[in-house]
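## retry 2 of 3
previous attempt timed out at serialization; input unchanged, resubmitting
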Amino acid sequence: MELHVRYEGDDDPDKCSARRLARFDLAELHRSTRATPPGIVLNPFAERALSPADADHDRLVALDCSWETAQREAFDLDGVHRALPFLVAANPINYGTPFRLNTVEAFAGALAILGEREHAERILSKFSWGHTFLELNEEPLRRYSECDDSTDVLAVQDDYLAEE
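## retry succeeded, writing output
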């Protein structure tokens, strides 16, 4: 599956997971919305959750911007918009925080849900903490990947949110 990033460039370049993925030719960065190809857009404001039913697409698109500046309007990208369900960040900046994933974690979570676990492991291998993301989210990722559709994913997510 192709990985594309609409790159805002407003984070610290040394800590930017999207830039590291691009350095290893694991993702392609795009500086404008128009240059960003359509695909499954990972959008936290989307009305539907990502599910295995979306596996027929061949491209994931993420917006790489600071969480402080992320707004609905920034996700004005062509494609099918899907929100990731409950997952916990493992990156050093947001460790343990639900729903505050960086770009590589968002891609890895999406890939695992879509049945591409090896691809998720490959992109996370470029980060010293990458394996931790899969360990922290092992059970929810497995359960999400076994769902039929967005409704099932939301039911599983509700189980995790009820525990919080």
